[in-house]
Amino acid sequence: MKINIRNITETAFACDALILPLHEGEGLKPYDGIDKSLNGLIGDVISSEEFTGKHNEVCLLHTGGAIKPDRILLIGLGKRKDLSHEKLRRAGGKAVSYLGNLKIKNIALSTGVNSPIGLSPLDFIEGGLLADYSFTGYKKEQNLRGVQRLTILSGEDLQQQVRWIETTASAAHFARDLVNTPSNDMTPSALVKAARSLKNVSVRVIERKEAERLGMGAYLSVAKGSNEPPKFIVITYKGRNVRPVALIGKSITFDSGGISIKPGEGMEKMKYDMAGGAAVLGTIKAASELKMPVHIIGILPAAENLPGGSASKPGDVVRTISGKSIEIISTDAEGRLALADAIEYAKRFKPSAIIDIATLTGACSITFGNEAIAMMGNDEALLEKMKNASEETCERVWQMPLFEEYKDYIKSDIADLKNSGGRSGSLISSAYFLSEFANDAPWLHLDIAGTAWTDKDRPYIPKGATGIGVRLLLGFLKQHVA
Q1: 291 with 239: CB under 8 angstroms?
Q2: DSSP assignment, residue 165?
Q3: Are strands 58-62 and 17-22 parallel, antiparallel or unpaired?
Q4: Closest by alpha carbon to 327, among 314, 340, 336?
Q5: For residue 243, what is the DSSP state?
């Protein structure tokens, strides 16, 4: 969907549908002139309470040629006192997905109702852009739905802000595509191709033999049961000559659990276990296209976790780059094995921050459902910046503790650590395991296991991969380089 900006009155702009956002309980304001041109059509549906302005309520009206737009879409914003940036985003998502499902292509947004309340129409547009997504590449008959052009009717200079939200929404769609792609096509080698498709970056791939020489025994143990070769992908974007931010994305392209095999029900979703890697790729894509003044090292320890004759077994002991030994209690706790070596590898760049993002624990979903990202770390400034980015994007994070007592959960009788402390406290003990490799490096962990996938359509997130983390990380980077 392309975004245009035109300084023209609503009644004079020819389009398939004109969106008029309205507050609950405030009647027609500020659209009395439009209603007069329509002989009271809008006023009639409001006075009859067919449309009340409740949040995300919609009503489609045909103008019959009385004004240039063919249709009017009324979209409710709810009560003025309750309006927020996120509610505007959701209203935008609802309006665009509603019109897209009707195969309406050319739409416009009146900004009159937004300006007096000090909230930008860009939140509405961002929601619309994020909602305008479908994954249909595997269907014989392609989906012809979707809005092609949205024009903001405004006299403001919004070009720079529009470019930001267009680029970030496109990057989120890119991440969604990667996660939605079936694992027979989205392999570690396919992730390499995705990385190499990015502009203004350099890509280095550490193959199995080099990883062995480097001592990445934990990471390599994950891939032992699969015929797909592991690919440790390192992406560099240098928009500024400063200390880098290391972004590490868990990139298990399919997670069966290995020998500790998962239940069969729902296992088809385990293609989503590379959603952290997809978020990192999407973030670097947007940062490079926007020419952000930041230095990023993206690390994707990509592998496939399958059972097989050569697969790692519970009870095996492996070593990391650091030399620390890990007893494998569960081969289904494989993500932290890959991330341990990735964090150790990232430290050689002396980054100003190490951020890992991962679908790490089922316990995250149990704790937060699909509503929040679990966040832990050892640096208060990083944690605060991520909270601020969360407030801005509504990709919600919630900080969990890293009490020293959690170290006891991952003590092994025969190795330095074990990769699972059992069900009790597993959301936090898994992060504490990672902290043992970050040590004193400024580090932050994001567990997106509950938010990377949705089984139902949301106002601006269609069912399937959510693309979570892209907008959040970009919001973080904006602050970090300011």
Answers
A1: yes
A2: H
A3: unpaired
A4: 314
A5: P
**Intra-chain end-to-end CA distance of the chain, in Å:** 30
Distance CA 475, CA 482 (A): 11
Amino acid at 262: K
Q: Tokens standing for 36? A: 């007069």
Question: Over the stretch 358-392, which tens digit does the pLDDT of each residue have?
Answer: 999 999 999 999 999 999 999 999 999 999 999 99
Coil, helix or strand at residue 370? coil
What CA–CA distance (Å, rounded) separates 255 from 447? Answer: 16
Residue type, 316: D
CATH 3.40.220.10 correct for 2-149: yes
- Give 413-435 pLDDT, tens digit per residue: 999 999 999 999 999 999 999 99
Q: Do residues 139 and 179 make contact, with C-beta atoms less than 8 angstroms apart? A: no
CATH 3.40.630.10 corresponds to the domain 167-480:
yes
Helix (H) or strand (E) holding 346: helix 335-346
Residue 446 burial (CB count, 10 A): 29
Task: Examine the pLDDT at 461 and tell me if it is beyond 70.
Answer: yes
How crowded is residue 428: how many other Cβ atoms within 10 Å of its Cβ?
22
Q: Are 434 and 339 in contact (CB under 8 A)?
A: yes
Whether the predicted pLDDT of 144 surpasses 70 = no
Question: Is there a contact between 363 and 386 (Cβ–Cβ < 8 Å)?
Answer: no
- Between CA 276 and CA 175 the distance in angstroms is 9
Catalytic residue positions?
262, 336
H/E run at residue 252: strand 251-255
C-alpha to C-alpha distance for 392 and 388, rounded to whole angstroms:
6
Residue 94 host element (H or E) = helix 85-101
Q: Which residues contact 47 (CB under 8 A, 6 or more apart)?
A: none
CB 395 within 8 A of CB 476: no
Task: Provide DSSP, 421-445.
Answer: --STTHHHHHHHHHHHHHTTS-EEE
Neighbours of 439 (CB within 10 A): 12
Whether the upstream peptide bond of residue 30 has omega within 30° of 0, thus cis, is: yes
Domain range summary for the chain, segments of one domain joined by +: 2-149, 167-480
Backbone angles phi, psi at 117, to 5 degrees: -100, 5
* Sign of torsion over alpha carbons 118, 123, 128, 131: negative
Q: Is the pLDDT of residue 116 over 70?
A: no
